[in-house]
Amino acid sequence: MKMFDGNPGMANAWPRMGRLARLLATGGMAAQAALAGTAHAQDTQPSTAADGDIIVTGYRYLSEDTSGTTNLPLPVEKVPQAISLVSEDFLKAADLRTLGEVAQHTPGAIFAGNPQGFGSVVKLRGFTGGTAIDGLTVGSLDYEPDYATIERMEIVKGPASVVYGAASPGGLINLVTKSAKADTASYVEALGGSWDRWRIEGQLAGALNAEGTVRAIGIAAHEEADSFMKIANSSKTVIYAGLDFDIADGFTGYVHGGYDRYRRSAFDGIPTLPDGSPAPVGRSFFIGSHDFNLTSKVGRVSAGLDWEVSPVWSISLKTNYQNTDTDGPSAFGFGLEEDGDFLIAAQNFLKNKREDFSVGLSSIYKLDETGLMDSFISVSALYQDTELTTVGGLPDFPEGPVAEANIFDGVKAIEAIINTAQLPGFTYEYGQRLEYLTLSGQAVIKVADPVTLLAGLSWSKPDVSSRLDGPWVDYSRGGEMSYRGAITVEPISGLNVYASYSESFQPQLRVDVDGAVLPPLTGSQYEIGVKYVSPDRRLLLTAALFDLNQKNKGLFVEQGPDGTDRYKAVGKTRHRGLELEAVGQITAAWQIHAGFALLDPKITRDDNPDVIDKTVPFLPKSTASLYTSYEFGGGAFVGGGIRYVDSVKTDFDRVTKDLPSYFLVDGSIGYDFDRYRVQLNVKNIFDEHYYINNYETLFYGNVVGEPRSFAVSVRANF
């Protein structure tokens, strides 16, 4: 069964269940795929000249409000946890289009592929990260979100179960959707680029009443593109709208909603040779078909109310609903031999529907009136219900569940073989349900002028069930407690030194050889760090050292008689590392977004003594990034940077070849005049040839990284 490390919001279960269950049972093969309160946002805003004309101002990389993610009304430098910030401006400046590209610019984050084209997988501190929208977790993103609707990202690293209940030990990525503020810009933008890429995007925002207490925002975007790979292409349409209200003094609310339709060619990489060498084909090589496309239709709505009951007491209520439905066939190759022979199989998604509903109630009570200045208590209740329903097919080829092909016959010949697949083929139904309630509390007490203590705990009760061509099976367990604690010292204003301990747990749906569900994944982390924010709050510097452990990771044992993979809960992994980051303005004209990370992932306990103290494969030990821009007088600006990823082991003992390191250089140049901006971005300037792995195994091969590309955009503010 083709597998990858699934999103923790769905209990680390495999979201594309059944891909190879019957296929492998027939063929006799198996594969183991072994970021408050005092926010000073630095968003791009238009300024107004004396004659009323709009003047475009420069990009701002630092946007620092993280209270919606941490439930802590603290400025970012006082939160005792590493948090990386990605603003809308930075996304635009570097022309970032995917979560994978964002990961390449984030210390501690790793782009771990795009399995089957369902969306980028991002690992945080070596573990698959969770996803949240507007501070509420969602099961997973089975698509690539469009950033026209995103105001900023908050990438919180380390265990967060005290806030979210079931959560990855690595952390989560919170996508904050756009709201209608008093100074939100209206604009239209057109873009064109490599491989016939074109895009049109528009945003309209403003007040609906004279008092400005009711504001609206509307966004629409459409993009189409071919690819450097033959046959592959994509298209997306995005519609988004929102209302923001000032209901009364200290009482605000919002309702936001949107619809995405995203179609792309199904592609899952090129198999490698048995020793791990890449297939001897060009970067444009493609295993797939014009007729094999995945289409995701995503509808979502979020709403919230914030009430400042008194100067010391505030209440927040928010909710999210998201419905994602993906369908279409996907072909893939595996088992490449020296003579070029390999096997082709396919999976047809008649329906892959995920529904996420979350509602959270939180309250903060400040303790200033009790004499504990700058202290508070935060309590919250979070309910989440996530359900996945998959109706899939395993198509037959004329010769059986798999087809044979030779890679040297070329793309067209392979496509012809793929097109002989009889759809839908053998069908199956798979379902997952994850429903849980989390109650949590955190206390921040300033015990002395420079010293602040944090303590937190949560209780979470997950109800977990799944089915495969049969009745639902309940795998629910008892409630789980999680804890965190921290101490922060501020020796001088703006400089904070902290030490923290935090825990995570994450239910699993994987089963053992007796059909019993594995115990939850559990994680614990010790972290020490330093944060500094400049007096003008335009530059944030962070450094963090961490020691992160996880237990009960599922290890593949065998395929059961019903075609499902069976695991055992063994082993303990320890990830130690260092992360450095600088975000914001060095001078009024000079912006920077830079990071560096070291990771040492080891197996410290396992039934197999041969792997103890071995480095965990498919995780680079070092990554680095830099993107900087400078605005000259007169409206001109230039930017550029690098993305570096170290080599990656593909086997404990290097039986197969490492994935080579890669170093990408990007650049941009542009000009602002009146209300207009013209910008040119070039990525991978030196056309570096690099690879990314999708499944933590070479059996299905690797994906080739994108060659040199360019994009030209023209934006008009009004």
Descriptive report:
With 718 residues, the protein is mainly beta. The protein has a single domain, classed as Maltoporin, Chain A (Beta Barrel). The protein has six helices and 38 strands. The strands form six sheets. The chain has a 22-stranded antiparallel beta barrel. The protein has a five-stranded mixed sheet with strand order 3-9-10-7-8. A hairpin with a 2-residue loop joins strand 5 and strand 6. It is globular, with a radius of gyration of 25 Å.
Secondary structure blueprint with pairings:
Layout: H1 21-27, E1 47-48, E2 54-55, H2 67-70, E3 83-87, H3 88-93, H4 99-103, E4 109-111, E5 122-124, E6 127-128, E7 130-133, E8 136-138, E9 150-157, H5 161-164, E10 171-177, E11 187-193, E12 197-207, E13 214-226, E14 233-248, E15 251-265, E16 293-310, E17 313-334, E18 341-366, E19 376-396, E20 403-406, H6 411-418, E21 422-448, E22 451-468, E23 473-474, E24 480-492, E25 495-506, E26 521-533, E27 539-551, E28 554-559, E29 565-569, E30 572-585, E31 590-605, E32 622-631, E33 636-645, E34 662-673, E35 676-683, E36 691-693, E37 702-704, E38 709-717
Parallel strand pairs: 7-10
Antiparallel strand pairs: 1-2, 3-9, 4-5, 5-6, 7-8, 9-10, 11-12, 11-38, 12-13, 13-14, 14-15, 15-16, 16-17, 17-18, 18-19, 18-20, 19-21, 21-22, 22-23, 22-24, 24-25, 25-26, 26-27, 27-30, 28-29, 30-31, 31-32, 32-33, 33-34, 34-35, 35-38, 36-37
